[in-house]
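Sample 3 of the quickstart, ligand protoporphyrin IX containing FE:
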Amino acid sequence: MTDSTTGTYSVISRANHWIVSLAFFGMLAVGFYLEYGGLTREARGPIMALHKATGTVLLIVVAWRVIWRLNQGFPASAAGSMPGWQILASKAVHLALLAAIVVMPLSGVIGSLSGGRPIDIYGLFMIPPFEKNEAIQSAAGFAHTVTAYVLTGLIAVHVAAAIKHHLIDKDATLVRMLTGRLATTEA
Ligand code: HEM
Ligand code: HEM
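Result:
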């Protein structure tokens, strides 16, 4: 049984969705704070270390989440009838979100290591850097920044759509991702 055959999100899929969502809200907030928070060098150090360690762990979590989704497929829409463009837009945004949550940690890890900087995993162990390569470092840094903005935009559209389905269309889209149920009220 997969999500596409049951027509809903299993408990594993829902846990994947909400845990990774929460983690990405936190990572984006901390990332933008590091970039625009006007931090001193000393204040920036430990927050950057936390950003890097948590992001690197998330690379594994996200790999699992994306492989799980590819295995499960997507359940058919819970919205009943929708205009063709909305079906297409929802598929495109979901695929783009899945791609962006891989690119974010991957570009971070590659950018750090190719910049000759190790990654300290919460003081438990160190991932040693590659030989410094400025071309790779700046390409990865560019990807990290651009994808951070693209992902923020995608999340805004995605959350707005979820709220619209729940409050305006009054369909089961949001409830299905929260509880797995296919209807807004108990049968
Ligand atoms: C897992 C998801 C991650 C998210 C959502 C995220 C998000 C962000 C954001 C929003 C910024 C500020 C925008 C910018 O790039 O200038 C940033 C900066 C940064 N992130 Fe991440 N990040 C993630 C993972 C990582 C990882 C795994 C590393 C390294 C191991 C990392 C290293 C950095 C560095 C070094 C900067 C500063 C870039 C600069 O000053 O040019 N990030 N991140
Ligand atoms: C408050 C925030 C959020 C809400 C209310 C929300 C709501 C939803 C809902 C209702 C669905 C099911 C859509 C459908 O059945 O067609 C969904 C799917 C999805 N959401 Fe979110 N979401 C949120 C945050 C996020 C974030 C931050 C990400 C990515 C970082 C994300 C990525 C995805 C993806 C990739 C799917 C497709 C199914 C899956 O693989 O889980 N969502 N979301």
